[in-house]
Design a protein that fits this description.
Layout lengths: L1 H10 L5 E6 L5 E5 L10 H6 L32 E8 L4 H32 L2 H13 L9 H4 L2 H37 L2 E8 L1
Antiparallel strand pairs: 1-2, 3-4
Helix pairs in contact: 3-6
Amino acid sequence: MSGATGAGSAASGASGARGPATDSQGVTVTTYDKGPLPGERPASAQQTAQPYQPPQAYSTQGGGGGTVRRPRTGATTMPRTRKARLRVAKADPWSVMKVSFLLSIALGICTVVAAAVLWMVMDAMGVFSTVGGTISEATGSNESNGFDLQAFLSLPRVLIFTSVIAVIDVVLATALATLGAFIYNLSAGFVGGVELTLAEDE
């Protein structure tokens, strides 16, 4: 037994195992010195182990802790466009009437001003005198001078006629726009309304 123990102590190395030894019944027993078992990790290795860190995509520069990103060469940044799909489910008839009334008034004023400017331009070019003389000669006789176009198409008469047309246009446009709003609301209840796609550039 003492010879087996001496052989075991001679076989022990840096790992701490003494080597096989045989007891009194002939069973081989391996004894170890003080230290970690073969399947155990040393305490120093557990303390120095660090968590896994993935490789960085951008290298750090300087001694500071911040990272500096390097732009990719040849990469172009395209502006993104945000889109929103909306649906006009209902049109307020009262707001449609107000807007159409103001727009028709503005259109009537523009019509009156355009008629006055056109009359002045044609009168300066001598269109009324030339055409009026031709009509007077064609319709005149020994007893009468014929139809006077310049008296019939005078500026006050033209402005009055244009103003009446503008007022009628205001009334009709307002009524038709309001009626169109009611018809649109009825049709939108069945088909869902008009869909719009709005885009916004960032």
